[in-house]
Amino acid sequence: MEAALPGLIEHLLGINIIHSEEIPDDIQHTKERKPDLLKKVTDSSGKVFILHIEYQVQNENEMVFRMAEYMVMLLRKYALPVEQYVLFMGAGKTRMLTAIDEERLKYNYQMIALSEIDYKIFLKSDKPEEKMLAILANFEHDGEDLALRNILKGVQAGAKGDFAENRYFEQLRILAQLRKLDVKFEEAMESITKFFKIENDPFFQRGEAKGRKENAIAVAIEMKKDGISADQIAKFTKLSIEEIEKL
After folding, report:
1. DSSP per-residue string spanning 62-125
2. For a designed S-S bond to 146, which of 2, 137, 142, 151 qualifies (C-beta 3.0 to 4.6 A apart)?
3. What angle do CA 236, 237, 243 make, to 5 degrees?
4. pTM greater than 0.90 (yes/no)
5. Distance of alpha carbon 247 from alpha carbon 242, whole angstroms
6. Would you give the distance in Å from CA 147 to the centre of its chain?
């Protein structure tokens, strides 16, 4: 997600950032909260604000209250405007409330469901990490089979070397699970074998439960190197927090 972030912020959030800097993502007052992404940014108009993004794969009934808690703590700690977004990456439509409308409290955050965005927008990117997000988007009139083949070809074209290609394909398999496209994904892989060296694909070399676990561990290691939190790695790889912390 970190590698895909610039494109997400520009194309999905509509924010043209000219400068950003990392800020601590541990917010503590009476309780500790750890946002998925937190940055102090300056956009092209000169506005300085805190950008807060949460990645969500399931509907959470109390998301609006969690986001409101974040808002209050961020305002108190940084005394800057706060822009909040939830990127919903799961299957189907989001059912989460985005606003609180009480007599003495008016609050809202912005929800963006990747499943409602044309997948071809992501394929226009030069970054394989951003191209991979197309699997979570809307396939429109192309259908699952054609869209998956287009995504696989697009990611493969942007990969530099067999190792990177295999890594991206393993990550795509994990993302496919979020959209319940596991079977369709494997069919698409088989249909484009002429476009990649299948003997170098570790999933097809092993093809057993043990191999799946090893693949998940390999992906988790790479994700840890990229600074992704253990909670997010667990969501994508299905490994436990304890397993991830031992890597």
Report:
1. THHHHHHHHHHHHHHHH-S-EEEEEEE-SSS------EEEETTEEEE-EEEEGGGSBHHHHHTS
2. 142
3. 130
4. no
5. 9
6. 19
Comma-separated ranges of CATH 3.40.1350 domains in the chain: 5-115
> Which tokens is 211 given?
């191999």
The position carrying tokens 């108190």 is 76
For 142-187, what is each residue's pLDDT tens digit? 999 999 999 998 998 888 887 888 889 889 988 998 888 888 888 8
Here the tokens at position 196 are: 């990649």
Task: Give how far Cα 20 sits from Cα of 17, 41, 73, 157, Å.
Answer: 7, 4, 20, 30
Q: Which of 128, 7, 101, 1 is nearest to 56 (CA)?
A: 1
CATH dotted code for 5-115: 3.40.1350
For residues 127 and 3, the answer to whether their CB atoms sit within 8 Å is yes
Residue appearing with tokens 């808002």: 71
Helix (H, G, I), strand (E, B) or coil at 28: strand
